[in-house]
Amino acid sequence: MDDLLRDFVVETTENIDVVDNQLVRFEQDPNNTAILTQIFRLVHTIKGTCGFLGLPRLEALTHAAESAIERFREGAPVTRDAVTLILSTIDRIKLIIAELDRSMQEPEGEDADLIRALEALIASQAVPAARTSRQPPAPPTDVTVGTLVYQVLERELRSGEVSLDELEQAFRATETEEGEFGFGILERAALVQDKASPLRAVQADDAMADEASGEANTLESSLRNNTIRVPVDTLEHLMTMVSELVLTRNQLLEISRRDERDAFKVPLQRLSHVTAELQQSVMKTRMQPIGNAWAKLPRLMRDLCQDLGKDIELTMSGAETEIDRQLLELIKDPMLHMIRNAADHGIETSGERRRRGKPPKGHISVSALQEGGYIALSITDDGCGLDLARIRQRAVRLGLASERDIERMSDQQVAKFIFNAGFSTAEKVTNVSGRGVGMDIVRNNIEKMGGAIDVKTVAGVSTTIEIKIPLTLAIAAALIIESGGQRFALPQMAVVELVRPSGSADARIEHIHAAPVLRLRERLLPLVQLNRLLATNTELVSNWNNAFIVVCKVGGSSFGIVVDSILQTEEIVVKPVSAQIRHLTCYSGVTILGDGAVIMILDPNGLAQNVGAIAEAHNDNALPQAERLETGIAKTSLLIFKAGPGGPKAVPLALVTRLEEIDVKRIEQAGGKSLVQYRGKLMELVTMDDERGFRDEGRQPVLVFGSADQPAGLVVDEIVDVLDEVLDMQGGSSKPGILGLAIIRGRATDIVDVAHYLPNMGGGAVSRRQQKRRLLLVEASDFLSAMLAPVLQAAGYAVQTAARPAEAAGLLRSGGFDVVVVSLEDEAGLSLAAAASAATSCIGYAGRASAELLEKAHLAGFADVVGTFDREGLLASLGALGQGFGEAA
Amino acid sequence: MIRLNDNIPQDERAADDRKQFVTVSVGNQLFGLPILQVRDVFIVTEMTPIPLAPRSVAGLFNLRGRVITVLSLRTMLGFAAPDSGESETIAIGIEWRGESFGLLVDQVHEVMALAEAGRESNPINLDARWSSLSAGVHQLDSQLLVELSLESLFSDLSSKAA
Lengths: 889, 162
Known about the structure:
- The complex is a heterodimer.
- By secondary structure, chain A is an alpha+beta fold.
- Chain A contains 30 helices and 35 strands.
- In chain A, about 45% of the residues lie in helices and about 25% in strands.
- In chain A, α5 (about 110-125) packs antiparallel against α7 (about 140-155).
- The model of chain A is unreliable at about 125-165, about 175-225, about 425-435, about 615-635, about 760-770 and about 885-889 (pLDDT under 50).
- Chain B is mainly beta.
- In chain B, β6 (about 90-95) and β7 form a beta hairpin.
- Classes of the chains: A alpha+beta, B mainly beta.
- The interface of A and B includes residues 244, 534 and 596 of A.
């Protein structure tokens, strides 16, 4: 009996979910009899089984609900209240089922309230005359209909039902295919015999009889025959066994390769194929459409609309996308949370929407899409967007960031604060959301499954939450590499490319202090030697040209891992590491390779953290690990160097074009300037203080700034390191050439003002131009503004700066600007295109130029959008505009 | 005081207060592991070392498709590592909190039934590391047997890990 009950619970839970959704659809489309029939049949099935299993409370409830649904079948008008009532009945049923699942017993309690309400509903609905006339003992008034239903069936006939059950049992034992048909007839017969033959039952059974003749029933039974329920444990076990089989097969193949006996080859080949196919099939059993996780959403949305008094439409696409069962379970709750948030905080009330000129009906869309080994999920609402100002305030209040940091953060970064624990900007806690536990749990869940979550928001227009999760937790594509005589697996998703340093300009390894960096297509890539990181071999690589570099990208930062060799790619089965080594951040798991060897799976995230750790070790001032792990606030890559008097100095790496070492013999003096021939051009060399000159002999380190056409070199004493740090400037500096102080790795470091050096350098070129073009730079961050202005000045523009778009708009009205360069981190920057006159071109830049932003910018009238630190790109865009000016003039 | 010289496992009279132990030796010292926690005994071949792992973690081993974390009892007890890897190839398989471990020992001996009452607490002059791993000492005829406490054997590790 217990087994039976368990099956019942599982099946009923599924059925109820379906009814939920069907009812919501039905409310919108009351004339769809197909939906109604389906709902009716589901409820009826539940009721029938309840009686069979002896669950009186559940039976009474489903019975009442069935009666009410029956009214709709007879043509009663479908009202919102009616549907709500039935839905709450279904909720009660769910409660009971949940308790059944736990204790195998119906919980104590009364459902008289709901049953009475349902009766009242039934009573209030007039039954069309045509149908009533078919019922021989039908009482003429509506009121009697209601009472009869109640007393006759569920309460007083209890003793009679036992015999009914027995009858059913006997009947079931004999018939096979037409279960419901026979059941219906039987029930009807039994009830008629009872003399009290209630109106409802007869009607229902009439309906059942009508249907049972149709094809619907056969369809259902054929569906039933095609699927079976298998406990998940069995599948998991099967999976492990198949992995075993694969390993054994691989071992056999290995042996046969060495052994020349041909007799084995053919059967082995066959075994190999079969195993592969088996593996695939077993994998497939774990996959389920993601729509299963969405099954509850339509109902949820309906309830939310009612609770919140909003009108929201939900669209779902990509429900058929398949995902690992395990992940499906994990993604369910986060989805619910996010939908709730979108409906509660995102979408405005209809009145509010009308005032803002939006369609009164809100819209939330959920979509899933497979992208490579990932599922990309997105949830978009067309609501008011996140209140970034409030988030900023709250982040400061919660101590997540200093006020200074907050001001410097882009909107996208600020928006990400919603994923922090205890972060809720909702003013009141509703029963829907606002307790501030939602989004951080969502993020935790997503990250636990190896996924990533991101939020994008446009004030007043929309909020989109984007989630990427792996297809399956169990299997991952990995690159097998070798380092220090040991093999490791590196998840393929983090690998961008493999590079063999050639010594050519394309891929050359150089050292800054002891830190190796790779010049890869004009970019500097920090390198980490895996054997040193893992301390398997502490020797420095002597011949870099024999090494392989795996370029990895983790969360926006790229680095290269130096390995001894790259072996192959393999689909690996990920197994967890034991508790004893779980604290090692460089590993994400263990796997068994085809040849039976156990190898560690490297975690690119952990390695990235260790890249910083190694740099620290070189500096001999290690910081507590907590500080290293601190992330969340954007870090800037800084080049640390020593030059002139005072402590270390730093400049954003992005502004440095190249690092060169120039032979002092090549430095020439001309026109009071120190010059060097550099790539076919003359490059002026500037020192940080005039007293100190160049080295007497050997090679002089130089930071090269400026474009390829106009290089300028800053002479330094020593290049110390490249660090990724949160740049937190502590006040300005009165010293020329120094922007301010920042604490970098525990040391006060001067941030060098490139502006101070560059205008002198570019001066010659600029003065040759007849008239400087006027440029307005709109950037909220003083630091960025100070960094970009010199670059633009060097390119020959008269630069004026504005911190806020509003301020800029005022300047623009006064006219006379040829170009406006606007930071689009603040979406308000978009409006500047409108403020600018036709003669003024607009170029935007953003830390992350998403496709969405690009589109918006182009719509707003921007000529181009470039990356924040993409100086070359910015100059190229300006150059393109410049040609336009030339033609116009 | 009950004499604990009988190695006969099943003695009906004393069965209720007796526990069975798998006895192993490391560096000439006899140890006892509660038999209920021991899953199997296996020979370790081709172990994968884990760079950066605590020293007591000898590596990972593929035992019929299961990944076993192999710990070295020798290192845990502070013995010097053996000259060649050969002597450390026998491991006791232990299931602990749902994970599979192998405990490398020098030799595996017979199973003994020892009376709970015969266990004496650690001598106070015992090395701190040892006394943290030992659940008590049993007196056998020829030598002493240290009863290992798996709880502290593994919790010791994880506290180091944390």
